[in-house]
Amino acid sequence: MKPEELKKVVREKYGEIASGKEAEAGSCCCGTSGCCSGSDYTVFSEDYNLKEGYNPEADLHLGCGIPTDFADIAEGDHVLDLGSGAGNDCFVARAIVGETGKVTGLDMTEQMILKAKENCAKLNFKNVEFVSGDIEEMPFGENTFDVVISNCVLNLVPDKRKAFSEINRVLKPGGHFCVSDVVIKGDLPENLRQDAEMYAGCVSGAIDIKIYLEIINDAGFEGVKIHKQKRISLPVALLSGYLSGDEIKELNEGENGIFSITVSADK
Length: 267
Hints:
The structure is a single chain. The chain is an alpha/beta fold. It has one domain: Vaccinia Virus protein VP39 (Rossmann fold, 3-Layer(aba) Sandwich), CATH 3.40.50. A 7-stranded mixed sheet has the order 3-2-1-4-5-7-6, sandwiched between helices. The longest helix is centred in the N-terminal third of the chain and has 17 residues. The protein is globular, with a radius of gyration of 17 Å. The two termini are 33 Å apart.
Protein backbone atom coordinates (compact mmCIF):
# COMPACT_ATOMS: atom_id res chain seq x y z
CA MET A 1 0.00 0.00 0.00
CA LYS A 2 1.19 3.51 -0.81
CA PRO A 3 1.50 6.09 2.02
CA GLU A 4 -1.69 7.92 1.06
CA GLU A 5 -3.61 4.65 0.93
CA LEU A 6 -2.36 3.77 4.41
CA LYS A 7 -3.39 7.16 5.72
CA LYS A 8 -6.83 6.62 4.20
CA VAL A 9 -7.14 3.32 6.09
CA VAL A 10 -6.20 5.02 9.36
CA ARG A 11 -8.59 7.95 8.78
CA GLU A 12 -11.48 5.61 8.02
CA LYS A 13 -10.82 3.33 10.99
CA TYR A 14 -10.39 6.09 13.54
CA GLY A 15 -13.27 8.01 12.02
CA GLU A 16 -15.47 4.99 12.74
CA ILE A 17 -14.19 4.86 16.31
CA ALA A 18 -14.86 8.56 16.88
CA SER A 19 -18.36 8.23 15.44
CA GLY A 20 -19.15 5.23 17.61
CA LYS A 21 -19.51 2.95 14.60
CA GLU A 22 -16.67 0.69 15.73
CA ALA A 23 -18.25 -1.42 18.46
CA GLU A 24 -16.49 -1.29 21.81
CA ALA A 25 -13.58 0.72 20.47
CA GLY A 26 -11.63 0.50 23.69
CA SER A 27 -11.75 -3.28 24.05
CA CYS A 28 -9.28 -4.07 21.32
CA CYS A 29 -5.98 -3.45 19.61
CA CYS A 30 -5.76 0.34 19.76
CA GLY A 31 -9.50 0.46 19.32
CA THR A 32 -9.81 -1.65 16.20
CA SER A 33 -12.01 -4.60 17.10
CA GLY A 34 -11.76 -6.12 13.63
CA CYS A 35 -8.03 -6.65 13.90
CA CYS A 36 -8.41 -8.61 17.08
CA SER A 37 -11.37 -10.70 16.00
CA GLY A 38 -13.34 -9.43 18.96
CA SER A 39 -10.74 -10.44 21.55
CA ASP A 40 -10.34 -8.39 24.70
CA TYR A 41 -7.28 -6.23 24.09
CA THR A 42 -6.97 -3.56 26.75
CA VAL A 43 -3.27 -4.35 27.24
CA PHE A 44 -2.28 -1.45 24.98
CA SER A 45 -4.03 1.24 27.00
CA GLU A 46 -3.19 2.33 30.55
CA ASP A 47 -5.28 3.57 33.46
CA TYR A 48 -5.79 7.36 33.53
CA ASN A 49 -8.40 7.40 36.29
CA LEU A 50 -6.18 9.01 38.92
CA LYS A 51 -4.64 11.58 36.57
CA GLU A 52 -5.54 15.21 37.19
CA GLY A 53 -7.52 16.57 34.24
CA TYR A 54 -8.69 13.13 33.14
CA ASN A 55 -12.03 13.17 31.33
CA PRO A 56 -13.54 9.70 30.66
CA GLU A 57 -15.53 11.02 27.68
CA ALA A 58 -12.25 11.88 25.96
CA ASP A 59 -10.62 8.51 26.66
CA LEU A 60 -11.22 6.06 23.82
CA HIS A 61 -8.50 3.73 25.17
CA LEU A 62 -6.42 4.14 22.02
CA GLY A 63 -3.07 4.80 23.69
CA CYS A 64 -0.18 2.57 24.70
CA GLY A 65 1.24 4.65 27.55
CA ILE A 66 0.85 7.92 29.45
CA PRO A 67 3.41 10.29 27.90
CA THR A 68 2.47 13.18 30.19
CA ASP A 69 3.94 11.19 33.11
CA PHE A 70 7.44 11.65 31.70
CA ALA A 71 7.08 14.75 29.51
CA ASP A 72 8.44 17.21 32.07
CA ILE A 73 5.64 19.67 31.28
CA ALA A 74 5.75 22.89 33.30
CA GLU A 75 3.13 25.46 34.17
CA GLY A 76 2.83 27.99 31.35
CA ASP A 77 4.19 25.64 28.65
CA HIS A 78 2.68 25.39 25.17
CA VAL A 79 2.20 21.68 24.52
CA LEU A 80 1.44 19.97 21.20
CA ASP A 81 -0.27 16.56 21.18
CA LEU A 82 0.16 14.66 17.91
CA GLY A 83 -2.79 12.44 17.00
CA SER A 84 -4.85 13.99 19.78
CA GLY A 85 -7.98 11.92 19.16
CA ALA A 86 -10.88 12.87 21.44
CA GLY A 87 -8.57 15.02 23.59
CA ASN A 88 -7.58 12.70 26.44
CA ASP A 89 -3.88 13.57 26.70
CA CYS A 90 -4.58 17.22 25.89
CA PHE A 91 -6.84 17.60 28.90
CA VAL A 92 -4.31 15.89 31.18
CA ALA A 93 -1.59 18.19 29.83
CA ARG A 94 -3.86 21.20 30.37
CA ALA A 95 -4.09 20.37 34.07
CA ILE A 96 -0.29 20.69 34.22
CA VAL A 97 0.23 23.85 32.13
CA GLY A 98 -2.58 25.62 33.99
CA GLU A 99 -4.34 28.80 32.98
CA THR A 100 -1.12 30.45 31.77
CA GLY A 101 -0.20 27.65 29.39
CA LYS A 102 -1.73 26.33 26.21
CA VAL A 103 -2.38 22.93 24.67
CA THR A 104 -2.82 22.23 20.96
CA GLY A 105 -4.05 18.92 19.59
CA LEU A 106 -3.32 17.88 16.00
CA ASP A 107 -5.28 15.12 14.27
CA MET A 108 -5.96 14.21 10.65
CA THR A 109 -9.33 12.56 11.32
CA GLU A 110 -12.21 15.01 11.03
CA GLN A 111 -14.51 13.03 13.32
CA MET A 112 -11.85 13.00 16.05
CA ILE A 113 -11.38 16.76 15.80
CA LEU A 114 -15.13 17.28 16.14
CA LYS A 115 -15.35 14.94 19.14
CA ALA A 116 -12.40 16.65 20.83
CA LYS A 117 -13.91 20.09 20.30
CA GLU A 118 -17.21 18.90 21.76
CA ASN A 119 -15.42 17.57 24.84
CA CYS A 120 -13.45 20.80 25.17
CA ALA A 121 -16.61 22.91 24.93
CA LYS A 122 -18.17 20.93 27.79
CA LEU A 123 -15.11 21.65 29.91
CA ASN A 124 -15.13 25.31 28.90
CA PHE A 125 -11.37 25.39 28.35
CA LYS A 126 -10.18 28.52 26.55
CA ASN A 127 -6.53 27.51 26.26
CA VAL A 128 -7.00 24.15 24.51
CA GLU A 129 -7.45 23.99 20.74
CA PHE A 130 -7.74 21.21 18.19
CA VAL A 131 -6.31 21.58 14.69
CA SER A 132 -6.77 19.38 11.62
CA GLY A 133 -3.53 18.42 9.93
CA ASP A 134 -0.92 15.85 8.93
CA ILE A 135 1.96 15.00 11.25
CA GLU A 136 4.28 14.78 8.24
CA GLU A 137 3.42 18.36 7.28
CA MET A 138 2.34 20.17 10.43
CA PRO A 139 0.45 23.46 9.97
CA PHE A 140 2.62 25.28 12.51
CA GLY A 141 5.59 27.61 12.34
CA GLU A 142 9.10 26.86 13.52
CA ASN A 143 9.99 27.10 17.22
CA THR A 144 6.34 27.17 18.38
CA PHE A 145 6.04 24.60 21.19
CA ASP A 146 7.82 23.91 24.46
CA VAL A 147 6.82 20.24 24.57
CA VAL A 148 5.48 17.74 22.02
CA ILE A 149 3.68 14.59 23.18
CA SER A 150 2.03 11.72 21.33
CA ASN A 151 0.37 8.44 22.33
CA CYS A 152 0.39 5.37 20.07
CA VAL A 153 0.24 7.47 16.89
CA LEU A 154 3.67 7.92 15.31
CA ASN A 155 3.87 4.22 14.48
CA LEU A 156 0.89 4.82 12.19
CA VAL A 157 2.74 7.54 10.25
CA PRO A 158 4.23 6.15 7.01
CA ASP A 159 7.26 8.49 6.94
CA LYS A 160 8.60 8.46 10.49
CA ARG A 161 11.75 10.37 9.53
CA LYS A 162 9.60 13.20 8.25
CA ALA A 163 7.48 13.05 11.41
CA PHE A 164 10.43 13.44 13.76
CA SER A 165 11.94 16.11 11.52
CA GLU A 166 8.68 18.03 11.85
CA ILE A 167 8.69 17.58 15.63
CA ASN A 168 12.17 19.09 15.71
CA ARG A 169 11.08 21.97 13.48
CA VAL A 170 8.07 23.02 15.57
CA LEU A 171 9.83 22.68 18.95
CA LYS A 172 11.44 25.75 20.48
CA PRO A 173 15.21 25.63 21.04
CA GLY A 174 15.68 23.72 24.28
CA GLY A 175 12.28 22.11 23.94
CA HIS A 176 11.67 18.38 24.09
CA PHE A 177 9.26 15.61 23.15
CA CYS A 178 7.89 12.58 24.97
CA VAL A 179 5.96 9.93 23.05
CA SER A 180 4.48 6.53 23.80
CA ASP A 181 4.59 4.26 20.79
CA VAL A 182 4.71 0.67 19.55
CA VAL A 183 7.96 -0.84 18.29
CA ILE A 184 9.21 -4.22 17.14
CA LYS A 185 12.15 -6.28 18.35
CA GLY A 186 13.19 -8.82 15.74
CA ASP A 187 11.16 -9.68 12.65
CA LEU A 188 7.43 -10.00 12.08
CA PRO A 189 6.16 -12.17 9.23
CA GLU A 190 5.61 -10.09 6.11
CA ASN A 191 1.95 -11.07 5.76
CA LEU A 192 1.31 -9.82 9.30
CA ARG A 193 2.90 -6.47 8.47
CA GLN A 194 0.98 -6.04 5.23
CA ASP A 195 -2.49 -6.55 6.65
CA ALA A 196 -4.20 -3.14 6.47
CA GLU A 197 -6.39 -3.82 9.50
CA MET A 198 -3.31 -4.59 11.56
CA TYR A 199 -1.73 -1.38 10.29
CA ALA A 200 -4.63 0.68 11.61
CA GLY A 201 -4.38 -1.37 14.79
CA CYS A 202 -0.89 -0.22 15.71
CA VAL A 203 1.13 -3.34 14.92
CA SER A 204 2.40 -3.54 11.35
CA GLY A 205 3.02 0.20 11.21
CA ALA A 206 5.59 -0.26 13.96
CA ILE A 207 9.29 -0.51 13.15
CA ASP A 208 12.33 -2.05 14.81
CA ILE A 209 13.26 -0.26 18.04
CA LYS A 210 16.86 0.25 16.88
CA ILE A 211 15.70 1.98 13.70
CA TYR A 212 13.17 4.01 15.69
CA LEU A 213 15.86 5.37 17.99
CA GLU A 214 18.19 5.93 15.04
CA ILE A 215 15.53 8.08 13.36
CA ILE A 216 15.23 10.20 16.51
CA ASN A 217 18.97 10.76 16.61
CA ASP A 218 19.16 11.49 12.89
CA ALA A 219 16.46 14.17 13.32
CA GLY A 220 18.88 16.12 15.51
CA PHE A 221 17.64 15.23 18.98
CA GLU A 222 19.87 14.66 21.99
CA GLY A 223 19.53 12.89 25.33
CA VAL A 224 17.26 10.12 24.05
CA LYS A 225 15.81 8.20 26.99
CA ILE A 226 13.41 5.27 27.22
CA HIS A 227 11.37 5.78 30.38
CA LYS A 228 9.13 2.73 30.15
CA GLN A 229 8.93 -0.46 28.10
CA LYS A 230 6.16 -3.06 28.10
CA ARG A 231 5.73 -6.26 26.12
CA ILE A 232 2.55 -6.50 24.07
CA SER A 233 1.32 -10.10 24.03
CA LEU A 234 -1.12 -10.39 21.16
CA PRO A 235 -4.09 -12.78 21.42
CA VAL A 236 -3.50 -16.25 20.00
CA ALA A 237 -6.82 -15.98 18.14
CA LEU A 238 -5.42 -13.02 16.23
CA LEU A 239 -1.99 -14.45 15.48
CA SER A 240 -3.12 -17.95 14.52
CA GLY A 241 -4.08 -16.70 11.07
CA TYR A 242 -0.46 -15.71 10.44
CA LEU A 243 1.83 -17.84 12.62
CA SER A 244 2.40 -21.42 13.75
CA GLY A 245 2.06 -22.37 17.40
CA ASP A 246 5.81 -22.21 17.98
CA GLU A 247 6.05 -18.85 16.23
CA ILE A 248 3.24 -17.43 18.39
CA LYS A 249 4.99 -18.60 21.57
CA GLU A 250 8.26 -17.05 20.44
CA LEU A 251 6.58 -13.74 19.58
CA ASN A 252 4.73 -13.49 22.90
CA GLU A 253 7.37 -14.94 25.21
CA GLY A 254 10.79 -14.74 23.55
CA GLU A 255 13.39 -11.96 23.48
CA ASN A 256 11.85 -10.50 20.35
CA GLY A 257 8.28 -9.32 19.89
CA ILE A 258 6.06 -6.26 20.06
CA PHE A 259 6.62 -3.64 22.76
CA SER A 260 5.22 -0.30 23.82
CA ILE A 261 7.82 2.27 24.83
CA THR A 262 7.71 5.80 26.22
CA VAL A 263 10.70 7.78 24.96
CA SER A 264 11.84 11.39 25.27
CA ALA A 265 14.58 13.54 23.73
CA ASP A 266 15.69 17.18 23.66
CA LYS A 267 16.01 19.63 20.77
